[in-house]
Amino acid sequence: MAIADDALLLREGIAKVLQGGGIEVVASVGTADELLAVLDGDDLDAAILDIRMPPTHRDEGIVALERIRERGDDLGVLLLSMYATPEYALRVMGAGSGTGYLLKERVSEPQTLVRAVETVASGGSVVDPEVVEQLVRRTRADDPLARLTERERSVLELMAQGYSNGGIAQTLFLGLKTVETHVRSILQKLDLEESPEHHRRVLAVLTLLGER
Fold first, then answer.
1. Residues with Cβ < 8 Å from 196, sequence gap 6 or more?
2. Contact present, 38 and 45 (Cβ < 8 Å)
3. Residue 124: pLDDT above 60?
4. What is the pTM of this model?
5. Containing H/E element for 127?
6. Which among 42, 109, 170, 209 is most buried, taking Cβ atoms within 10 Å?
7. Is 124 exposed, middle or buried (0-12, 13-18, 19+ CB in 10 A)?
8. Following DSSP, what letter does each residue of 42-102 receive, concatenated?
């Protein structure tokens, strides 16, 4: 995988965490354009990008993600940000499956960062739990999420954080079949039509984020 961030020390820290989790880092660059050049020459499974990079330090990472998707590249892309910004998360997740949005502070949580990379590389989605918490608090009564039970809401929040059904079962101390039943119920209650599993899970997460 590749890492793009204009802060050299942070890139080195991310690389060390990933390598400790068994993930090979083949490129480390300082700008989004350099990352895109790397992707032109290498067949990678995933990439980590800072959202704010040179030259404007605004949304270069998200623009790079959108360019990657426009050209049909389905590699996993994990965006990092200093701030829990729901609007950024919506834009990132709007790029489809295989994308994620995490706060930079998660770099100090090796298991969280490694799991997030593995999730987007396999086509799943990840949203930082702090962003999820903010959005859940502002949910309106007429929101589709109001149809969910408290347990289903807990399952959806973990889906948003990139947990697999097995991971959700372990976290909530539930049986795998029980979790599968909850997931099916969530997708039905949110009126998500039958389609590939990862795609439906991304749509469910977008519902949580307020996109639909």
1. none
2. no
3. yes
4. 0.73
5. strand 126-127
6. 209
7. buried
8. ---SEEEEESS-TTTSSSHHHHHHHHHHHTT---EEEEEESS--HHHHHHHHTT-SSEEEE
Average pLDDT over the chain, rounded to an integer: 87
Query: In this predicted structure, what is the pLDDT of residue 138?
Result: 62
DSSP-based helix, strand, coil % in the chain, nearest 5: 55, 10, 35
Residues paired with residue 99 on neighbouring β-strands, in sequence order: 77
CA distance 52 to 59: 5
What residues contact residue 163 under an 8 Å CB cut-off, 6+ apart?
A: 171
Interatomic CA distance for residues 21 and 9, integer angstroms: 19
- Taking the C-alpha atoms of residue 159 and residue 93, their distance in angstroms, rounded to an integer, is 13
Indicate if the pLDDT at residue 2 is higher than 90: yes
User: CA–CA separation, 134 vs 156, rounded Å?
Assistant: 14
